[in-house]
Fold:
Amino acid sequence: MTLFAYRRERTPLHRIPAGAKLLFLIALCIFTFSGGLITTAICLVISTALFIVSGHHKESLKPVKFVLIIGIMVTLLRMLHGNIQEGVYAGALYTVRFLITAIAAQIIFETTSSLEIKEAVEALQNRIACVFPPIKKWNPALALSLSINFIPQVFATWNRVHTAAKARGVEAKKGPVHTTRAAYNQILAFFSCLLYQAETKRKALLNRSIHE
Structure:
């Protein structure tokens, strides 16, 4: 399961329009980090409800485990630069809030296809174009939808590179030198693949702009 990857299924959340889900996600992130403990608790209930409505697949939670690692690092840094108790409280609160938004984003993106996101952004652009016509010529919706849909490709690309390395026995040998060399080669291949994909999307975007 890749972070923010689309999952084909028929759930109530899949049937909700993409635009409504994206706006809801933005609002949830704002309320989660700007409100108090009560607001955070409400957002936690909402995020849990999204998980249930989406089919409550346990595999959906695995990609967001990185939040716990980041949360521990943030907590330690806050403890070192202030009161220990206040650092623990602030770090734990940040971790919970980050986890709420990460789970919500994972659920929203895995129940919304890239085509649905593109159509939702273009629909918003068309409405704005009724008031401000030049935006239709600039076509920011295409660039924005490509950028949003490129996010899951980043994690999917890393998974493919890492899986290919494991299949070739790259990680079989132990030792700091071999581990560092293997990690370096995987990162190099990862960025090479990303640059190739980004260049392909750039050319597609440029060609479409020229024809239009």
Remarks:
- Helices lie at 18-34, 37-53, 66-80, 84-110, 114-131, 134-138, 140-167, 176-211.
- The mean pLDDT is 85.
- The chain has two domains: 18-112, 140-211.
